[in-house]
């Protein structure tokens, strides 16, 4: 028989002893009532046995050479830093003090002290033959970007750029044979770098079709392509990337080949 039943919602496990039920209940609540008794350690555990295992594994059989010399204390610690932190409870002062002359600020952790000391030391540039020292990490980053960033140079014309993507876009102007889309309409001969631009040209110039109008008050511009209207809409409202796309009149969908050739198949 297991008369002691866990009353946590959805559980209902039974136990032979009330102690076992109480210990099990901690797995639901997440409570850890047993705190490590070793000085400078704040680990907590759900059961006493787990706490004992922790002490045996982490704290026993290890020499503690740093002893608190405050009257009536005598707690010992393995590390000097642990002792310094502990002694703050006696003095009510942060343990880590800045040694810079005229400063004397105190901090609760070594990392905060180290961060503070950088105010006095500064952030030195590590590049060869550079003596720059920034007051902040951000200043050093800006210095490196301005003074030590290698220029991005076009190998064809020696033009320099700030970013690699700018160079990549520029290099297209040096291509021996640029990919072009030539208008197939008789007597035209215009070329475009994208199929989208060619389609827009055929609709607006040859077919004189601009079915998409901007419905922004006072605008009324018309476009051959739906995407062109969407791109234009940002001029009126940069936050709102799309305005309602309004077509003047509906027209049947045509294949790409039909658009480029101008041939309209019979219905």
Automatic annotation (TrEMBL):
InterPro entries: TFIIIA_Zfn-C2H2 (IPR054599), Zinc_finger_trans_reg (IPR051061), Znf_C2H2_sf (IPR036236), Znf_C2H2_type (IPR013087). Keywords: DNA-binding, Metal-binding, Nucleus, Repeat, Ribosome biogenesis, RNA-binding, Transcription, Transcription regulation, Zinc, Zinc-finger. It holds the Pfam family TFIIIA_zf-C2H2. Residues 4-33, 34-64, 66-95, 96-122, 152-179, 181-211, 212-241 form the C2H2-type domain. One of its GO terms (cellular component) is nucleus. GO terms for biological process: ribosome biogenesis. Residues 244-256 have a biased composition (Basic residues). It comes from the Eukaryota. Coiled coil: none annotated. SUPFAM superfamilies: beta-beta-alpha zinc fingers. The keyword Nucleus applies. Residues 244-267 are annotated as: Disordered. Involved in ribosomal large subunit biogenesis. Binds the approximately 50 base pairs internal control region (ICR) of 5S ribosomal RNA genes. It is required for their RNA polymerase III-dependent transcription and may also maintain the transcription of other genes. Also binds the transcribed 5S RNA's. This is Transcription factor IIIA. The lineage of its organism: Eukaryota, Metazoa, Chordata, Craniata, Vertebrata.
